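Entry 14. Ran structure prediction on the chain below.
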Amino acid sequence: MHVPDGFLDAPTSVTTGVVAVAGVALALRRSRGDLDDRVAPLAGLVATFVFAAQMLNFPVAAGTSGHLLGGALAAVLVGPWTATLCVTVVLLVQALVFADGGLTALGTNVTLMALVGVWVGWLVFAGLRRVLPRRAGSVPVAAALAALLSVPAAAVVFAGLFLVGGAAPVEAGTLLGAMVSWHLLIGIGEAVITFLVVSAVMSVRPDLVRGAQPPGPAASAESHREAVAR
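Output, structure tokens:
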């Protein structure tokens, strides 16, 4: 999913850069109320895990490989605003230190993975939590389905960007079909990893999983106090 330099023309890259800056700035402002003494260390661990997981590729088919995007997983664990910051930091380090994704494409990668990946994952997760049974076992299931759908969603957005400002002419149906089909397979791997990680955290510290808590910082703090009391 990492877009390299030169895949998109300058106007498209500048536009995604503006979107990325605006999204990250809003996340910085909105995450202040979430980053308490419990969430801040977990956010660091989430960023570290996503960074490590994105360095590991798993085979898909025909020589194609995929890696964890981590947006939905991060959103479920620490909330979407903090997750946006976590994934952005990961992408920034990868671009500057490991040349994974180009510098001119950094805004595009942040838009695709830290904004689209995180927020599609979170909205799907939140919607599923409304309809699934209100029990702890539903959280990893909702997280896995959210992860599954967030990956092809990011691929669809990239396809749209490439059709607008791609470096080479490609037929729309061919590009969209290829991106969605391959990333749906990658999404299955992402769903499995997300399910296992969220299940593991839920089994030992459910009070740390933001997606398992009632909405609002006050409710989260109360849930934490109850968990400590137990």
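DSSP finds eight helices and two strands in the chain. Will compare against last week's run tomorrow.
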